[in-house]
Amino acid sequence: MTIHKTKLNKFTTLIEENKKRIDRVPNLRLDDNGKYTRAVSISILEEYYKLNFQEAFSAICEGDGDCKIDALHYSDDADTLTELVLIQSKYKNIPGDTGTFTGDEIKTLVSNAIAILTGRDLENPNDKIKEKIARYRTLLNENGNPSITITIFLATNGVIHEDHKSLQCILDAQSRNIEFVFADATAFGSEPQAANGTLRINIKDESDKTDSIFRNPDACMEGLLASCSVNDYIDFYMRAGKKQLLSQNVRFLLKKSNVNKRIENCFKTHPEDFCFLNNGISIVCTDYRVEPTAGALFNLTLTGASIVNGGQTTGLLADLFESEPGRYDEQFRKANVILRVFKASPEHAFKIAEATNSQNPIDIVNLKANHETQRKVKEFFNEKGVGLLVKDGEEIVFFDDTITNC
Q1: In 3D, which of 275, 280, 271, 266 has the Cα closest to residue 333?
Q2: 9 has pLDDT over 80
Q3: Dist CA 163 CA 105 (whole Å)
Q4: What is the pLDDT of residues 60-112, one digit of tens each?
Q5: How far lies 184's CA from each of 2, 312, 381, in Å?
Q6: 167 to each of 16, 155, 163, how far by Cα in Å?
Q7: Which of 230, 190, 193 lies closest to 349 in space, CA to CA?
Q8: Across the chain, what does the average pLDDT equal?
Q9: How many CA atoms lie within 13 A of 270 on its CB side?
Q10: Coil, strand, or helix at residue 288?
Q11: Order of strands across the sheet with 71-73?
C-alpha cells in the first residue's frame, strides 16, 4: 500500500500534540513509548468521534491486564449507545514503518470483542476495563438491551500488513456485528457525512405548504423555503458536523471580507433586521422531513445535508458563538435566518451550488472547486503531501508543499 503523505502528516501532528498534552497530566508515570501509544488512541477518538482530549484520555485502558484493548469508548446517548469502540494502538518511531501488529495480538483482541458482544467476562481484565464494561452493560440494560455493533480500530502511524487485514478471525468477526477500521499511514482520517439534524422552522401551515414547498418531478428535485432562529440554526450546525456541512460550499470562511463585517455588524446591532438584510442559507440534502410540534413551529429533519450557499454567514455566526460564549445570547435569540432547502441528487446539487448567488463575489475557479475532475486531481496531489488549493480559505497545515488554483 502507498503511504498517503498528507494523511500521515495529519496523524503525526495529532500524535505529537496529544503526546505534549499527556506530558502535562500530573502523576502519570509512563515512558515516552507509553505516552506515544496512548497519543495514537487519543488521536483516533478525536479524529473519528470528535472527542476532546479529556474525553479521549478517559477512554484509555492500556496497561497490565488491558486484554489488548488500549482504549474503550461508548456514548451515554441512547441514540449512539449501540456502538462500542475498541482500539489497539502501535506507535512507530519512524512514521510509515512496517512491523506493527502481530497476528496473535489481533486474534486476542477479536476474541475479547466477541466475549463482550456475547455477554461473557474477559480473562483477567484490569480494573478500568472491568469498570467500563460493567457500566456499559448497565446502560444497555436500562435502554432495553438493544443489539450492539463493535467497531475495532487497529491504529498506528506505521503500516499495517495487508495479510493481517484478512485474517480468518477478522473475516469471521465481520459476520457477528463487528466492524474493522485500519487506520495507518496509508489511510488515516474520517470522511464522515454530515450527521442527520433537526431544526425548528417557520412555514405557512401544516395543511397548506404551497408557499413553502416547490417541486420538479422530472428532475426528482424538491425544495423548501422556511425561516428559523439563528440560535437553532447554529445549534444544528454544531451538532450535525461543521466541516462536513461545508464540504460542498465553494469556499471556506473568509474572515477579512468587508461583506462579512457588514453581516457581523447587522447581527450585533440590529438582530431583528437580520432576516431581511441577509441572503440566507441554501442547503442541499438527500432527504428531508417536516413534522408538526405542539407549538407553532415545525421540526425539519435533514439527511445528508450540505451548505452550498451561506457558508460565510454560517461560519461567522459560529465563530461568534464559540469565541465569545454568552456575549450575544440576546442577538442569537432575536435574529432569524431564511433557509432554502433542496432535496437533490449529487449532480443537481452541484448545479445548485454553481447557480446560487453569494454575498461575496465568486470567480469561476471557486465555482468549479467541487467538480469531480477537480476532486480527483486534488486527491492525487494529497497522496504526495502536496495541497492543491481549489477553495479560498482552505487549511494548509498538513501539506509539505502547496499549489494554488484559487
Answers
A1: 271
A2: yes
A3: 14
A4: 999 999 999 999 999 987 767 899 999 999 999 999 999 899 999 999 999 99
A5: 11, 34, 19
A6: 31, 16, 7
A7: 193
A8: 84
A9: 10
A10: strand
A11: 71-73, 83-90, 149-156, 178-183
The whole-angstrom separation of Cα 66 and Cα 122 is 10
The C-alpha atoms of residue 236 and residue 227 are separated, in whole angstroms, by: 14
C-alpha cell at 114: 466477541
Contacts of 4 (CB under 8 A, 6+ apart): 185, 186, 187, 188, 382, 383
Q: Which residues pair with 150 in a beta bridge?
A: 84, 178
Write out pLDDT tens, residues 115-126.
999 999 999 999
Kindly tell me the sign of the dihedral angle through the C-alpha atoms of 43, 49, 55, 60: negative
pLDDT given at position 251: 46
Which residues neighbour 25 within 8 Å (Cβ) at sequence distance 6 or greater? 57
Q: What is the tens place of the pLDDT at every residue in 225-268?
A: 999 999 999 988 877 766 556 655 544 444 555 667 888 999 99
Strand ranges of the sheet holding 336-343, from the earlier edge strand across to the other edge: 213-216, 221-229, 336-343, 281-285, 306-309
- End-to-end Cα spacing for the chain: 32
Q: Which of 236, 257, 192, 216 is nearest to 339 (CA)?
A: 236
How many helices, marked H, and strands, marked E, lie in the chain? 15, 14
Going 317 to 320 to 323 to 326, the CA torsion angle's sign is negative
- pTM (predicted TM-score): 0.58
Kindly give, in sequence order, each residue whose CB lies less than 8 Å from that of residue 145, ignoring residues fewer than 6 positions away. Answer: none
Residue with cell 473519528: 48
Phi, psi of 18 (to 5 degrees): -75, -30
246 grid coordinates:
461545508
Look at residue 34 and tell me whether its pLDDT is greater than 90. Answer: yes
Cα separation values, 71 from 39, 154, 310, 365, Å: 11, 11, 39, 44
Residue 212 cell numbers, joined? 413553502
321: left (phi over 0), alpha (psi -120 to 50) or beta: alpha
Taking the C-alpha atoms of residue 42 and residue 50, their distance in angstroms, rounded to an integer, is 10
